[in-house]
Amino acid sequence: MKKIFVLFLLLSLQSQAQLGKSMFTKDPIINLENFDKQRVYWGYFLGFSSFDFKTDYKTVGNDIDVKGHTGFNVGLVGSLKLQEYVELRFEPGLYYASRTLTYPGFTNDRDRIREVKATYIDFPLLLKFSALRTGNVRPYLLGGLSTTLNLSSNSKSKDDNLEQKFRVKPWTQNYVLGFGIDLYFEYFKFSPSIRGVFGLNDELIRDNDPNSPWTGNIQSLKTRAVVINFTFH
Predict the structure, then answer these.
(1) pLDDT in tens, 176-232
(2) What is d(CA 178, CA 138) in angstroms, rounded to the nearest whole number?
(3) Cβ-proximal residues to 79 (8 Å cutoff; 6+ apart), any chain
(4) Which of 133, 142, 158, 184 is deepest in the core (most CB within 10 A)?
């Protein structure tokens, strides 16, 4: 995920450097001058993400090691202008995620390791708070709530971790916080952003045995994620 964050910074800096040639001159060229006057506009995004779990335990002991892997995101963006500096955004998207859970106390990989793959359909409703535009750059903050459907939840399976089935609930709710930069080019607006996703509800489906070594000591299991999106309007 560190590599993705560095890539995000490099792309943003490179874009700003290119725009700077037209911004910091005696007569700066303003691209898409009337773009933000639109009441409604559309776009799409591509990006990367790393999903994790925040795990709370019933009793103190050896923690489960959760390792997130880099995934891919794609989706659509619809924006409704509420006032000059505030927009309501709907950003439905498809997210591919993977986590590796390593349990302490086991001697073989069959019991110790769980590969938890997920395909999420996310339905976020966000508010975007934009700063004053300076030349061809406009930073912004965003936040809101999302509802997510996990198509890989295994929620209907009667098998549990004894048969290597790690189960989670299909629907979850999250809150989202982030920031980004609108960069205005001659023919389109490019908006890289980075955001955090924080699960609000417990997602874990417990094993049939209440004393299961995989789920018995878990109080709650909630999604955490870092998402980097590159949006084009």
Answers:
(1) 999 999 999 999 999 999 999 999 999 999 999 999 999 999 999 999 999 999 999
(2) 15
(3) 40, 41, 42, 43, 87, 88, 89, 128, 233
(4) 184
The residue type found at 92 is P
Domain boundaries, the chain: 2-232
Structure tokens at 83: 């006032």
Query: Over the chain, what is the mean pLDDT?
Result: 89
24, pLDDT greater than 50: no
| Strand-pair category, 40-57 with 86-90 | unpaired
Chain centroid to Cα 105, Å, comes to 32
Residue 20 scores a pLDDT above 80: no
102 contacts 112 by C-beta, under 8 angstroms? yes
Residue partners of 21: CB distance under 8 A and separation at least 6: none
Residue in this structure with the two tokens 């080019």, named with its chain if needed: 185
- What values do phi and psi take at 123, rounded to 5? -125, 80
CATH number of the domain located at residue range(s) 2-232 in this protein: 2.40.160.20
